[in-house]
Amino acid sequence: MIRQIGLIMLALLLVGGIAPAGEDAADDAPTAIERGRQALTAGIDFLLRTQNEDGSWGYHAQIRPYAIYAPVPGAHHSFKVATSGLALMALWGSERDDKAIKAARQKGVQYLIKNARAKRSHGREMYCIWAFGYGLQALARAIKSPCEGMDVAAARKMAGRLIEALGIYQTADGGWSYLEFKAKTFKPSATSMSFCTGMNLLALYEAREAGLTVPKKIIRKAVLSLHRCRTPEGAYLYSFNWRYHPNGRINRHGGSLTRTPGNNLALYRLGHGIDLQELEKGVRMLLRKRRFARMALHRPVPHESWFSVSGYFYLFGYFYAGECCRLLPEETVAEVRDGLIEEVLYVHYPDGSSWDYPFYGYDKPYGTAYSVLALQSLLLPK
Fold first, then answer.
1. Most buried by CB count within 10 Å: which residue of 54, 119, 195, 297?
2. Backbone angles phi, psi at 170, to 5 degrees
C-alpha cells in the first residue's frame, strides 16, 4: 500500500498535479545577477563608510597571533596606498554620482597625489610595488575622467613619479617582485613574480592610455619576462625562479588559477601572444577548478593550501576575470557570469564587505574593492 501511494504521488508530481515542496520559494529567490547588484550597492556603501579622514582606506591592526612580515612603518604605508588605489578605482567605476561619492573621490585622489610614492622600508621587501601599480592605475582612471575640484596637473606629476619608480624597481629579468632575500640591492636582485608583473603591466597600459609617457623599454622587458613565465599548458609560473621546475604544484593550473586571468589580460592588452580565446580559457579554467581557490580562503599562513594557493589571491583572481569579461563576446560572458558572481558572493558578508585573507586592517577594504570592481565588470554596461 505504501509503495502504491508513493507511485501515485510521483505520477502527480510528474504531470504537475502537486508542486514539489519549496518550488514557489525557489521561483521567488533572487537570481545571481540580482544578488550581485545588491552586493555591489552594499560594497560601495561599505567603502564610503570606512574611508579614513585623510582620504585613505585600511589601517594597521595587529589583532592576530600570526601576520605576514611587514616592517613598520614603510610596509604599512605601501599597503594603505595600494588598498586606497583599489578603493578609489571602485568608486570611480560606480554608477552613482551623489554627494557622498563625489566627496570620497575627491579625498581619495588627493590622498594618492600626496602619498602614492611609497618607499621601500627594508632590504627584504618591496611591498611598494603594489602601491605603485594600484596607485598609478587609480590615478590613470582619474586623469581620464577627472572629478570636480581635482588637480589634474598634480595627479599627472605623481603618476609620472610612479612610472619612474616602477622603472627603478624592475628586476634584472624584467618583471617585478615584492620580496628580496638575496643581495638586497637598490636595483632588485630578486627574480620577478608573474602576478606582480602582470599587475604593473596593466597599470602602465592604463597610464599610457591616459596620455602619460611610459618608456617603451620598461614595457618591453616586462612583457618578455611575463611571457617567459607562461607554461605550455597555459598556466603561469609563480615566479621566474621556478622556470627549472615548471611542473611544481604552484605552477600547475590548480596553483595558477587566480594568476592566469590577470597575466593573460596583460599580455593581451600589450599585444603579445594572447587572443580572446586564451582570455576565455583562463576564465573558464578558474571556474572549473574554483575549489582550489576556495580551499585557501581565510587561512592565515600563505601557501599552505592545495597547490600552494594563498587566500589573498582569491578576489585578486576574480577582479581580473571580470576585467577579461569586458573584452569577451557577450554570449561567452552570459555563460560564465553567474558562476563568477557566485564566487564573488561566496566571500561577501552582512556588513557589506568582502574579504578573503586576514591581513591587518586592510583585508576588508581591499577585498571589498576587488569585489566591487569584479561586479562592476560583470553587471554594468561595457
1. 195
2. -70, 130
Whether the Cβ atoms of residue 366 and residue 83 lie closer than 8 Å to each other: yes
pLDDT tens figures, 343-372 = 999 999 999 999 999 999 999 999 999 999
| Confidence band, pLDDT 50/70/90 cuts, at residue 183 | confident
Give the number of other CB atoms < 10 A from CB of residue 84.
32
Q: Where are the domains of the chain?
A: 31-379
- The yes-or-no verdict on residue 228 having pLDDT over 50 is yes
Q: Which amino acid is at 291?
A: R
DSSP-derived secondary structure for 175-204:
S--SB--SS--SS--SPPBHHHHHHHHHHH
Which residue is listed with cell 613574480?
193
Q: What is the C-alpha separation between 163 and 160, in angstroms, rounded?
A: 5
pLDDT at position 67, please?
Answer: 84
Q: At what angle do helices 128-144 and 194-209 cross, to 10 degrees?
A: 20
Q: Model pTM? A: 0.92
**Torsions phi, psi of 202, nearest 5?**
-65, -35
pLDDT over threshold 80, residue 180: yes
Q: Which CATH number fits domain 31-379: 3.40.50.920, 1.50.10.20, 3.40.30.10, 3.90.226.10?
A: 1.50.10.20
Separation of alpha carbons 190 and 220, rounded Å: 19
Task: Fill in the amino acid letter for 289.
Answer: K
Least Cα distance to 323 among 282, 291, 295, 357 occurs for 282
